[in-house]
Amino acid sequence: MDNKQKILNHIQKIPGHTQSQITNRLDIPQSTVKYHLLQLIKENKIFLEKLFKIHYFSVG
Fold first, then answer.
1. What pLDDT score does 49 carry?
2. Could you tell me which residues are beta bridge partners of residue 56?
3. CATH of the domain at 44
4. Could you give the CA distance from residue 31 to residue 52 in angstroms, rounded to a whole number?
5. For 2-57, how does the pLDDT look when each residue is reduced to its tens digit (9 = 90+)?
6. Which of 2, 10, 20, 58 has the fewest Cβ atoms nearer than 10 Å?
């Protein structure tokens, strides 16, 4: 399974995690997580939810 799919699976199982939480849980470099999160958002597979200065990711 590639990193993008791992990230998507994680968000589907545990929605509401931040980028840092995803990075720590999956042990994937932060820059890689950021890249794939942006790709998943562009593909409308996940959504970015912003609360104050914290960004959370969830599946629509």
1. 81
2. 49
3. 1.10.10.10
4. 22
5. 999 999 999 999 998 999 999 999 999 999 999 999 999 999 999 888 877 667 67
6. 2
- Given a contact cutoff of 8 angstroms between Cβ atoms, the answer to whether 46 and 58 are in contact is yes
7: nearest Cα among 48, 27, 42, 43: 27
Q: In terms of residue numbers, what domain contains 34?
A: 3-58
DSSP string, 12-55: HHSTTB-HHHHHHHHT--HHHHHHHHHHHHHTTSSEEEEETTEE
**pTM beyond 0.85, yes or no:** yes
Total domains in the chain come to 1
Distance CA 37, CA 45 (A): 9
